[in-house]
Structure formats: C-alpha cells, structure tokens
Amino acid sequence: VEVKIEVVIPEKERSKEEMSPNGKASPLIYKVNGTARHYHLEEHPIASNPYHNPKDVVEASVCHVKDLENGQMREVDLGCGKALLIKESGEFHAVGHKCPHYGAPLVKGVLSKGRVRCPWHGACFNIGTGDIEDFPGLDSLPRFQVKIEKEKVYIRASKQALQTQRRTKMMAKCISLSNYNLSSTNVLIIGAGAAGLVCAETLRQEGFSDRIVMCTMDRHLPYDRPKLSKSMDSHPEQIALRPKEFFRTYDIEVLTEMQVAAVDIKNKTAVFKDGFKMEYNKLLIATGNTPKALSCKGKEVENVFNIRTPEDANRVVKLATSKNVVIVGASFLGMEVAAYLAERAHSVSLVELEEVPFKKFFGERVGRAVMKMFESNRVKFYMQTEVSELREQEGKLKEVVLKSGKVLRADVCVVGVGAVPATGFLKQSGINIDSKGFIVVNKMMQTNIPGVFAAGDAVTFPLALRNNKKVNVPHWQMAHMHGRIAALNMLAHGMEISTVPYLWTAMFGKSIRYAGHGEGFDDVVIQGDLDELKFVAFYTKSDEVVAVASMNYDPIVSKVAEVLAAGRAIRKRDVEEVD
C-alpha cells in the first residue's frame, strides 16, 4: 500500500514536558479451570449515571455539530476544566485532554481508527472508553458523556475528572490474603520496573484475585527510571510510578532489596540470595540489564558511577556541581547526563569510541547536529578514543587518562558504555537464553518453559514490524507493553505483541522522538533543517521506511507510528522531497 506522509512543520511547541506522577486502569472475571469467579472490585462498573454527586457535575454546550468535521479534535473548556472533543465516523466522543503520562496536549496528537496517540511519547487511548491501549504511562483518560440537542454538542463531566485528567481502571483485590503460605505465591514477578508493574496491574485489572508478589534488588517501589538521567536531582518519592497506598489497596506485594539467585523450574521455586525460597504457579522474569563497568586501571577509585538508582543520580549532581565531570560513553544515558550537568558543573567532557554520538542509532548527520548542540552548551568531546586509566588522590578520582595520551581533570566520572542483560542467575535453569544473555520469548512473551514469561530489557522477542525478526528493544514503552502481554497470557488470553517501538531522549530542553526499529538502516532521508534542530529523519532499508526520528516537528513521529501500527508500508519515495 502506498502511503503519502504529509509533513507539516508545526508552530513552536509551547507546552513544557513537565513531570507528572502516574494515576489509575479494566474489566473483571478471571476463569480458573473453566469456572468464572467474581472478585471484589475497588470501584464498581460505571452505572448509567456515573455522577453520584450532582454538585460534582458540570454540563456545558461546547460547539455546534457542524463545527467539527470527521477526523477532527478540539480542546473545549467546560468552565472548571477542559476536555478533548473528537468527531469520528459521524460520532462525537469526549475524553481527558492531557496525556496522563507527562501531560502532553492530546489535541496536538494523532487521531486514527478509534484512538488518539500522544504527540510526545506515543501512548494511545481509545476514544470511546478512554482506556490506555499503548504506552508509556499507567493511567487511562476519563471519558465524558456527550449529547446532541438542537444541533448543539453538550458535554457532561465530573469536575474531579476534569481536574485530575486521569483514570485508574477498575481492579480486583486479593481474596483472603491472610490464608496464604508466606513462601508460595500464584504469580511471582522478578523485577519491579515498568514491565513488572504493568504485569501486576494488568492481572488485577483483568479480575485476577490470587496472590501477586514482585521482588526487586532496588530499595524503592517502582519508579520512573528514564528520569534518572533526564532529571537527576529527582527524589524517589517524586518519581514513584504509584504511591505506597496503591500497592496496599490492590494487594500487590513488593519485596525490596531481595535478589533471586536461581530459579528451579522443576519445582517451580525461586531461590533468593539469602536462602529464602518462594514457590510460584506463574513466573515473570523482568530483571532488566546491568550496566557495563570500565575495565581500565584504577576502576575502583571513589566517585566513579554507573547510574542505577535515584541515590546514584542525586550523588552525581551533588559531586558535579561547580566541579569537573568526565562522562565515558555517548550513549543515551551518557548524553542525557552530560546535558543535565552542563550548566551545573565547571566542565563536562565526554569520551566516546565512535566518531559521532548516536551514529549507529540516528545516523551520522543527525549525530553531528546533536553533537554541535552539545558543543554550543560547553560540552567538550574526545572522540575515537577510550579511557586507559583513572587516577586518584587520597582514594578519590582526580584525573582520567585517555588512550590518546590526553589527561582530563575529573572530580566525578559517569560511565555509560552500555549494558548486559541481568540473566546470569538463570544459567543453569533450563530457560532458553541466547549467546548474548537475552531470554528468548515468543509473541506471547512466553519462554520455552510453560508458565514462565519474560519481559523488558532482558528479552529478545519477534517484532511484527520487521517480519518477526527476534530483536531486543531496551526501552520504556516496550517494557510496559511486554508486561501487559505477559499478564494477559498468564490468563490464557492468547494475546500476541504487535506494538511499534517508540522512544524519546531529552537534552537541553529539546526532545528527539523516535518510532520503529532502524537496526541495519542503509539510508536516511532528512527533511527540515538539521542546523536549526527542526527536522524529521526517515530511516530506510532497501526501499522501505523502518524508523523515523524528529526534533521540533510534532506530531510526525506519532503519525508514522500509527501508519506502521496499521501494518502499512511506507516507501522511500513517499518521504523523499520533490525538488
């Protein structure tokens, strides 16, 4: 199918991508051995009149029926808050106007076949129900009643929903938690990142009311990990994905600072490092990855960091303020940390083996444009070299010596040279692991062992977009979707993954958005102006567009993601500008 992509450079985006905590999530009955069992739900299904308190309700005329064409969206004001009014196939729908993830204005997003996609990070919401259908984020949109009277469109809404702009779907609770044996659980989730949390929440949303235990090596409840490098002085409670009460309310147990040392698949038991054992019925492995360390001389000196926790990030900011920072690796983490510290530190130096940052991911031309932006913000690059030694004074880092012979002054060093899957504990388990250490799963996130699922950064899975090629996509949105698919298949829904990868990076107040899977691209078609950092780059392989990246060009990446999600091919000729 030939698809023409219309590219319109938007007016300057005024909304700031501010931080937002996450809020609420779906239906109910869970079948065990063919018998439907009903569970206690925290919220009841919406009755025909969902507004119990008349004082909480507002109703307003928002436009004439002819004001909106099919396929159009409009932000409308109800006096005490706004809603997004949508017209599709002759019908009007009204939902929350802000994406619950980071508050993006959905009116600037993409409407396609019954759902709206966020212009910033690609989350998708059903326009009829408000339910979240693709990620990132955990909450759905509130849905408002629409009625037509005398050619006028009215919206009836709860004032509270208009103000919060988010809705957590209905969730089951656990039945008779007190009867459980401490050392056995129905579902055990190893890892408490996005994949683990979404898996647990999806189980509860689907009415599952048995025991769920998540365990993590971290000392915190699940948090917004991308913020560690983008907003480094965030405290754990500021970036928590859910408050403590949420886990109590929905009976999701989280064991912190607990490391699994081995999995015994024969006896369906996880063995913890401290000797504690826990039996499970279904298992999700979502352990993510472990950062690679430097292997040079002096690597054990003080003030050298991999950023794994909020404490690491906070400590680096403290140590770096008005001091000299060296970052090793122009990875996403390395570049984001460099951008964050540039105005706080006395100097920021970045050491990288490649000649251009992001060359393999965004291509040389985009990489150079990004590099230029960094250089104009006082970041100094040392390319095509690596670290040969870290020198100390009184045990603390003093200098970083490069193989080129250059010596850099350094009070703190951040290492961002990649990561390896955290799967070492599975070596003798019988679970299929590939030569790079990734857990191999099918489209249902199942491993080769019945009842054992895996998700997130530690897996390779078949990507529908690339003819089911087994890939590893270590990004936040994908981890969410993996967790959801794993949960649905623990409940025997037979659901296959088909999402389009979507990611973003933020540096110096600017974002690069990216959708697709560009591995192995052989050409880049660029429209717009790289020098002005206002561009879209289409990554092609043979004649087909396999990925897209943009800066200051919303909502083009979300548009392309919707086309790819519909299974339609975009040809190179469709995106090449006509002279």
UniProtKB/TrEMBL annotation:
SUPFAM superfamilies the record matches: FAD/NAD(P)-binding domain, FAD/NAD-linked reductases, dimerisation (C-terminal) domain, ISP domain
Major subcellular site: mitochondrion
One term under GO cellular component: mitochondrion
Tagged with keyword Glycoprotein: no
InterPro entries given in the database record: FAD-oxidoreductase/Apoptosis (IPR050446), FAD/NAD-bd_sf (IPR036188), FAD/NAD-binding_dom (IPR023753), FAD/NAD-linked_Rdtase_dimer_sf (IPR016156), Reductase_C (IPR028202), Rieske_2Fe-2S (IPR017941), Rieske_2Fe-2S_sf (IPR036922)
The organism's place on the tree of life at top rank: Eukaryota
Gene3D superfamilies per record: 3.30.390.30, FAD/NAD(P)-binding domain, Rieske [2Fe-2S] iron-sulphur domain
Record keywords, A-Z: 2Fe-2S, Apoptosis, Electron transport, FAD, Flavoprotein, Iron, Iron-sulfur, Metal-binding, Mitochondrion, Oxidoreductase, Transport
CDD domains, per database record: Rieske_AIFL_N
GO MF entries: 2 iron, 2 sulfur cluster binding; metal ion binding; oxidoreductase activity, acting on NAD(P)H
Domain Rieske: 60-155
Residues passing through the membrane, by range: none
GO BP: any one term: execution phase of apoptosis
Subcellular location: Mitochondrion
Family label: Belongs to the FAD-dependent oxidoreductase family.
Biological role stated in the UniProt entry: Induces apoptosis through a caspase dependent pathway. Reduces mitochondrial membrane potential.
The protein, known as: Apoptosis-inducing factor 3
